[in-house]
Structure formats: C-alpha cells, structure tokens
Amino acid sequence: MPLMKTPEAIFELGLNHLGEVQRAYRMVDTLRAQGATHITIQAVVDFSSTTRDSVAIKTVQPNCLSFEDVIAVVQYGQNAGVSMGAAVLNPEYVVPLVEAGVRFFKILSSDLTYTQLHIAVARTRLPCYLSTGLATIEDISRAIDLIRAIEPETDVRLIHTVLQIPTPAPMLNLNNIPFLIKKFNVPVAYGQHSDIREALFAAVAADAETVFVYVAEEMSPALPDGPHAVLCRDARELLKKLAEVRIMMGARERIVTTAEQDRRISIRRSIVAAEPIKKGEPITAGKIAFKRPGTGRAPWDAAQMFGSYAEKDYLQDDDIG
User: Fold this and answer.
1) Using omega within 30 degrees of 0 as the cis cutoff, is the peptide bond preceding 166 cis?
2) Span 159-215, pLDDT tens digits
3) Residue 29 contacts residue 77 (beta carbons within 8 Å)
4) Closest CA to 158 of 172, 147, 169
5) What is the rounded distance in angstroms from the CA atom of residue 246 to the CA atom of residue 208?
6) What is the dihedral of CA 25, 26, 30, 33, to 10 degrees?
C-alpha cells in the first residue's frame, strides 16, 4: 500500500453540508479550487444505529446524507483530484467506502473503544486516524494494540483533540502532541474544535503531522460543526499560513547556513595586534586587541597566548596566531 502524502491540512465537511448533497459538492469544488488536497466526509447515515439518545437523533439526523449520497460525494471528490477520507461510524460501510475511492479513515473519539469498527478499518490497510478526545493513555494504547493485532502493518495515526466545543485556550493542551508522538511512535495530527485560529499554527509548531479543520460554505449558528469551522473560500490562505509556519520551524538540529557563515566572520572579533610587535617579543595583554572581522583566532583563545613569543613581525591590527 503506497504511503499517504502528508497534507498541510485535511478539511472536514462534517455535517456542515446540512444533509444536502449539492451543498457538499459545492464545498468540495470550492476547497479544490482553493488548493485543498485532502477532504473527509462523515459517513453518518442512520444516527439511530449509533445511539439511544432520542434528542441527539432528532438533532443530528436531519443533517445526514443517505449512504448513496456519501458514496457520490466520495467519488465526486476523487474525480476532482482530491484524496478523500471518511469518518466512519458503522463497520458495514467500510468496504463500500474503499470501493468508492476512500483513501484514509478517521475513527471518531466516541468510537475509540468500538472493536468491530477497528477491525473493519484495520483490514483495509489504509491510513487510519484515531481521534483521542476524552481518551486516557490506556485507551489509546489498547486501541493501537488491537488494530496492530489484526493488521501489524496498518498505518495508525493519532489526532490530538479536545471534546469541549469550542475549546477554550487553557484546554487545548497542545503539548500533548509531542508527548503522544514520543509515547506511541506514530504521527500525530491536531483536530480543531476551537474557534482560536492560532491554535492551528501552534499545533504545527508543536510538530503536528497535519491539522483537521472543519469547513463551511457560510457561517451560521445552525451549522452542526459551526463554531470552529473555517469558510471553504478561506482554505488557500489557511494553507499558505500553515506552510509558512512549517518553513519557519525549520530543521530540528542546530545549523549555521552559508549566509550566516559569511555574516559570522564579519561580526565576530579576532585577536589582533594593538600596536606593532616584533618577532620574538612576548605577547602580553597590553599588546593585543579584539577587533572585527573574525578572520583570525577568537578572543577566547587569548589566555593561551600570554607568555608566548611572537613568531613573526606584526603590524597594528594584524591577526595574531
């Protein structure tokens, strides 16, 4: 299975299409035109198959697409050149979604313990993002172990997210990202449930592999995933800023660039003759000075010179040593 190219962002339609397939198509079109390469759709069809909460069913169900429409959106995105992913809730939908062209899966935080779903996704051997909202370390470890037991080569990835919507700044806990990377040795993305746009950039700075961003055609209090959504038409600007942050983060190891090497010489000091010195004269503190550019020995070597003798004649300001 070829490796999935890591995108700057994965844009989530969520249920912000409001159950309208034409709106979903328009969202895909706008995102694609804005440079999006990866989009997910939630394969939420019959919400009553996932919960006994009648209030939740009444609230969510009107915003769901039929499974046929979900498949149609996946195919529409694939035909537009987008790598389509699916947040899947039902094991029986996994294979048809793969056949329709889904290239990666997301398992919602609420289904982190749903064994049957994990097995179905693992058997596809496609990249699988596990959302970790509300999860303990033990929960995450058990989920990963379960998937790897089914398919050891499954490309398991995590999403750090917080299920407080919208998530306030003190609850973002973005330091969890490098912690999870080190703990589980897998890529870790960030799932945005906050209306603080800067959190996306901070997550990239914290080494998030990518960011999951809910999108909307227009902002409205009626949107299921509204408070933390980004407008589809703003995707290009977001992608640009995310790329800029990643460039700014640069290399992990300490390096000095070629440009800095030249600058380093021009601004550093050398040990130079404070006055003319004849060959054989002792080098003393009074006979040296420290001046730019740094073309000779550095000032921290001065103590090693004291008590030695000049090996040649030096004019004032000549490098010594």
Assistant:
1) yes
2) 999 999 899 999 999 999 999 999 999 999 999 999 999 999 999 999 999 999 999
3) no
4) 147
5) 10
6) 60
Cβ atoms of residues 6 and 50 within 8 Å: no
With contact defined as beta carbons under 8 Å apart, do 86 and 65 qualify?
no
Look at the alpha carbons of 222, 223, 226, 232 in this order and tell me if their dihedral is positive or negative: negative
Residues 87-139 pLDDT 10s: 999 999 999 999 999 999 999 999 999 999 999 999 999 999 999 999 999 99
Which residue in this structure is represented by tokens 């195919």? 75
Q: Is 288 left (phi over 0), alpha (psi -120 to 50) or beta?
A: beta
Give φ, ψ of 173 to 5 degrees. 50, 50
Measure the CA–CA gap between 128 and 124, rounded to whole angstroms.
9
Q: And the tokens for 128?
A: 């699988």
What number is the average pLDDT over the span 52-62?
92
> Look-up: residue for tokens 């909202």?
133
Average pLDDT, the chain: 94
User: Which residue would you say has higher pLDDT here, 222 or 30?
Assistant: 30
CATH architecture of 9-249: Alpha-Beta Barrel (3.20)
Look up residue 68 and give its two tokens. 């046929």
Alpha carbon distance 88, 93 (integer Å): 7
Dist CA 12 CA 230 (whole Å): 10
Residue 310 CA to residue 300 CA, distance in Å, equals 18
pLDDT tens for each residue of 3-43: 567 899 999 999 999 999 999 999 999 999 999 999 999 99
The segment(s) of the chain belonging to CATH 3.20.20.70 are 9-249
Picking from 183, 218, 187, 189, the residue whose alpha carbon sits closest to that of residue 203 is: 189
